[in-house]
Amino acid sequence: MKSIIFLVMLLVMPSVVFAAQEPTDRVKLGVADIIGIASDSALSAEQKKQSLSDVIEKHVDIQASAQRVLGKYWRQANDTEKRQFMLLLKGVLVDTYIILLEEYDNQTVDYTSETIKKKVYATVDTEIHTKENDIPVSYRLYQRNNEWKIYDFVAEGLSMIRTFSNDYRRTLKQSGVSGLNEALAAKLAQK
Question: What parts of the chain have a pLDDT lower than 70?
Fold first, then answer.
């Protein structure tokens, strides 16, 4: 499963910013960035982590992801809580996927379809070919300021957004966004 998630992340991170490019192009460009990080043996673990953080910062719509993860709690949160949650969510993504950089093993990807809805939402469907099997993965993108960015992906039926929402639901109900932010900050500090 780790190699599947890593491959998903390979495709989530676009490597070059091009205004108004097509969603599939953005997803394809991500492969080069992540493979570059994964295959650069000269980079220390900390340098790889920073490189991954930079890629996420530039090419993932953290705000769109955060809004969807928090759902109704996003509207209830104040601006400080929202900003803090977005920083923490980025940290969670980096810490989750830095380990998976080591899992890359020359897998290949086919881009099977692209659907654009309302000119600002897109889905790019792919199939990752591993030595063992083929894995369907869908990437969800949002266009903001004439630029497509990833906000979610679905691998083997599991949405990143839905998974995080489910993981955080109990804390949000009990303590709101501020409580979730405290819990996430404590967890990230342990790493």
Answer: 1-20, 31
